[in-house]
Specification:
The complex is a heterodimer of chains A (about 290) and B (about 290).
Chain A (H helix, E strand, L loop, with lengths): L1 H34 L2 E2 L9 E2 L3 H8 L1 H33 L5 H13 L2 H11 L6 H8 L13 H30 L2 H9 L4 H29 L3 H7 L8 H11 L3 H26 L6
Antiparallel strand pairs in A: 1-2
Helix pairs in contact in A: 1-12, 2-12, 3-7, 3-9, 3-11, 4-7, 5-7, 5-10, 7-9, 7-10, 9-12, 11-12
Chain B lengths: L1 H39 L3 H4 L14 H7 L4 H37 L5 H9 L7 H13 L6 H26 L2 H9 L4 H12 L1 H16 L3 H6 L8 H10 L5 H21 L1 H12 L3
Helix pairs in contact in B: 1-13, 3-13, 4-7, 4-10, 4-12, 7-10, 7-14, 8-9, 10-14, 12-13
Classes of the chains: A mainly alpha (about 290), B mainly alpha (about 290).
Chain lengths: ~290, ~290
């Protein structure tokens, strides 16, 4: 009796999770897949028909797809670079113990706690196209003559979005790197100092290589954040065409034009494109680190 | 003697560099909040004067009064949004935490058929984009009249936060010394007694961290409620604040004030319980 109980107990414990995940994740994913082969517009609810790969072909051929894919790739690259550099810098700052280090740590996690949409709103005041903070600063310093329009130029807007997103994602990267820095044995630095290593060379030969696995975790998590940027773009530029990435394009197709078939196909194309990052992400979660 | 002098000067240089880096860090991190605050206390008539002055000529608390004074047209929507956010967070935590704890315990402490399959099946959903599930969910919710209901919205939150939190917790459970489990088993405890008597009492840090992460992530949701809960009775404060900027004639002062008020709860929680949060995040990166 007891044995049987022990055998089925794990499944009983997992039951609530399974119900939730099947109903709200696995089943919908399968349904999305079936939608992607159908002509299915909510504006014409009676006209639903199986059309094979037509949605996929339409999506891949459309200019909007190429345009938003370029934007996504741009955001991915810039956000990952900015997040990693600033995250690691924050970790180095926090790694030194002094009277204020507790306070610094508290301040460092603030951006991470921000709702992404509010993050975008707050930064909109800084990169405001009229007399916002950055424009005031640039004009006062004599770098710009008149206010710069940050929102309507494609790559200017994407750069601003990258900065804003990196600002929010750098703290997590920083904390992860800090965890890495803290695991480096102090003896290594002492030994290096005895061998005549300076600050720079011990950074180059001890700190950097031993933090690499953690920087890797930070980078993968930053890339997941980067491909999923949505709120910041909406806050800074609305659903305009200039800054749209794949997710915005997907939102517009599905919920503005109510084309569920094409939207579902686009979703699967995005999933396929991002699955490489996903594999890296899962791997980084399971990594064992040895010295 | 010379070497010492050199060492001293080098340390001084490094210190100056460190202090400069700290200042830059403080300016870049706190600056946006400070600027949003300045905008929020700037009178509307001064907002668009083309001046290079950084600070407004006079300060006004009008925008905050507007949002919190129950009479005005903004405050009704704003306070309702705050309440909706609190409600969604509460339901998410009440359902999400127990489910995550049970799942993590089963996956980390028990051996059974299909364990690896279930574990990776759960983890993989962490990288699946929201749209993969939300398109059919929208349709299912609208045919069953589940749209604009806080409870059903929160269930979607739970399903998207479960993998991350389960993973954090099961790492923690796995790092609890096996002797503790075995001692309890020798004393004749079953899995469940062992769970309540041994595991739960030592796991409060990770449960607190997980609760905090769930709180912050549900408070910050925008995409999911935009699609599943966009009516006035259910939409969270994040959507309400963003609407001040897009839908209405634009009042920047009110938007800035609203944004700052909307981040007050998550910022306070993060600051108060930062010990658990940071330990939880570190736990996540240094596998236990």
């Amino acid at each position: 009796m007891r044995k049987l109980y022990n055998k089925i107990l794990p499944y009983i414990l997992l039951l609530p999770m399974m119900i939730l995940m099947i109903a709200l994740v696995y089943y919908p994913i399968a349904v999305t897949f079936s939608y992607s082969f159908k002509r299915m517009k909510l504006t014409r609810p009676d006209d639903i028909e199986f059309i094979g790969l037509k949605n996929y072909i339409d999506v891949l051929r459309s200019e909007d797809f190429l345009y938003s894919l370029q934007n996504t790739v741009f955001l991915l690259i810039v956000v990952v670079i900015l997040t990693t550099v600033f995250g690691f810098a924050v970790a180095l700052i926090l790694n030194r113990e002094h009277r204020l280090s507790g306070l610094f740590l508290a301040i460092a996690i603030l951006p991470w706690a921000m709702p992404p949409i509010v993050n975008g709103i707050i930064w909109k005041f800084i990169f405001f196209p009229g007399y916002g903070f950055v424009n005031k600063l640039l004009i006062a310093l004599g770098i710009a003559e008149k206010p710069i329009d940050w929102i309507s130029d494609r790559f200017l807007l994407l750069t601003v979005v990258s900065i804003v997103t990196a600002w929010r994602s750098a703290p997590f990267c920083g904390i992860v790197c800090l965890a890495g820095l803290k695991t480096i044995p102090k003896e290594l630095y002492e030994a290096a100092a005895i061998d005549g290593c300076g600050t720079l060379s011990s950074f180059r030969y001890i700190t950097l290589p031993l933090s690499l696995p953690f920087i890797g975790i930070g980078m993968t998590s930053a890339s997941v954040t980067a491909v999923n940027i949505f709120d910041e773009i909406v806050a800074l530029a609305g659903f305009s065409d200039t800054g749209k990435n794949l997710l915005i394009q997907n939102y517009l197709t599905t919920f503005s034009f109510l084309d569920f078939g094409k939207g579902s196909a686009l979703t699967y194309v995005i999933m396929l494109l991002t699955s490489a990052i996903g594999v890296f992400y899962l791997r980084s979660l399971n990594k064992e680190i040895t010295y | 003697m010379r070497a010492k002098e050199f060492e001293k000067r080098k340390n001084k240089g490094a210190n100056a560099l460190y202090i400069a880096a700290c200042c830059l860090f403080l300016i870049l991190t706190l600056g946006p909040f400070v600027w949003a605050f300045i905008v929020s206390v700037t009178p509307e008539y001064e907002m668009f004067t083309n001046t290079l002055k950084m600070l407004p000529g006079e300060m006004t608390w009008g925008n905050y009064v507007e949002l919190l004074d129950m009479e005005s047209r903004y405050s009704l929507r704003f306070t309702q949004g705050m309440l909706n956010s609190v409600k969604a967070v509460a339901i998410t935590l009440i359902i999400g935490l127990p489910v995550a704890v049970l799942t993590a315990y089963a996956l980390s402490a028990m051996k059974f058929k299909g364990r690896a399959f279930i574990k990776y099946g759960l983890l993989i959903t962490m990288v699946i984009p929201v749209f993969a599930t939300i398109i059919p969910l929208f349709r299912i919710y609208s045919t069953h009249r589940l749209l604009d209901k806080s409870f059903w919205l929160s269930l979607v939150y739970v399903s998207s936060f479960l993998p991350m939190n389960t993973w954090l917790m099961s790492n923690y459970f796995a790092s609890i010394p096996r002797e503790l489990y075995e001692a309890a088993r020798v004393d004749g405890c079953g899995y469940m007694t062992c769970f309540f008597k041994v595991i739960l009492p030592v796991s409060y840090p990770i449960i607190a961290a997980s609760a905090l992460i769930m709180f912050l992530s549900s408070w910050g949701q925008y995409q999911i409620p935009l699609i599943l809960a966009s009516s006035a009775a259910t939409k969270p404060v994040s959507i309400v604040t963003s609407e001040f900027m897009t839908k209405d004639t634009i009042f920047y002062g009110v938007t800035a004030a609203g944004g700052l008020l909307a981040i007050l709860p998550p910022a306070l929680m993060a600051l108060l319980f930062r010990k658990y949060l940071i330990n939880g995040m570190m736990q996540g990166s240094v596998k236990g």
